[in-house]
Amino acid sequence: MADPTASRPEAGELADAGLRLDVDGPVATVTLNRPERRNAMTFAMWRGLARIGESLPEPVRVVVVRGAGPSFSAGIDLSMFERGGAEGGDSFAGAAGDDPADAERRIAELQAGYTWLRRPEIVSIAAVQGHAIGGGFQLALACDLRVIADDARFCMKEAALGLVPDLTGTKPLVDIVGLPRAIELCLTARTVHADEAARLGLAELVVPAAELDGAVRDLAAALLAVHPGAAVATKRLLRQAPHNTLEQQAAAERREQVGRLKELFGSGGAA
Ligand code: ACO
């Protein structure tokens, strides 16, 4: 759940972080908005994403994550590796620090920019055109669904830079493509084009680039057409299915259905 006490970030604060948020009733659109840098990501951007997640207004049921310009995101802003760092002063200088626990706490703050996209209260859709590299690929993986343009290209580049993917991408990648393919993709840092991405299950839909926005709008409309409470309960069920035994999952289905029946028919409702 979003934190009801969290204040909505100002548009200016988000713009400084290279982000834009548009809320239109039940649909929120988060735009990575540094097209001149191919939406390269800074610490400020990741913290801004976390702020959006914390303060998402309650009526929002669908979140679209998109990138302005030709690429979804070129991943981490490489200037953060240089002396002086990226715009806004973000830099890796001293990022590891002396205290590993402190460094891990800082990474957890950045991961919070991704984890909220899995909440049962929303369905998140990544609309991917062009490159989705490293942290950009992981942001697409953090979403429930991926609608991609036929020019989309995914690359988990971290290993080539001496890093590991640490923005919550390793689990969904393994869940979607399986362990051997995930090892192959991460440890070669090779690029996966749209047709292969669809074959691997990394995209629910591939469309011509000019049709990406329309396809995402249609999907959002279809998601909004089902019962809101049933959507939340069903996503909660589906999310736990891979970790449950059949018995545990059947029990979870019973619990959720009793909640549904109560809401639909009052406390006397029964199947
Ligand atoms: N960090 C900082 N600046 C970037 C990044 C980045 N990750 N990616 C692109 N830019 C900048 C370029 O330097 C260029 O700046 P300039 O106009 O001042 O020269 C501008 O964005 C446009 O980039 P081009 O390379 O000209 O755009 P093109 O569309 O031809 O290529 C591509 C896009 C493929 C994404 C290419 O820019 C690229 O390979 N970028 C680096 C990707 C990368 O290695 N990311 C790290 C991933 S690992 C991780 O996220 C942990």
UniProtKB/TrEMBL annotation:
Q: Per the similarity annotation, which family is this?
A: Belongs to the enoyl-CoA hydratase/isomerase family.
Q: Report if keyword Isomerase is assigned.
A: yes
Protein name listed in UniProt: Enoyl-CoA hydratase/isomerase family protein
Keywords from UniProt, A to Z, are: Fatty acid metabolism, Isomerase, Lipid metabolism
* Organism of this sequence: Actinomadura alba
Give the domain of life: Bacteria
What Pfam families does this protein map onto?
Answer: ECH_1
What the entry lists under PROSITE patterns is as follows:
ENOYL_COA_HYDRATASE (PS00166)
**Pathway as given in its UniProt record:** Lipid metabolism; fatty acid beta-oxidation
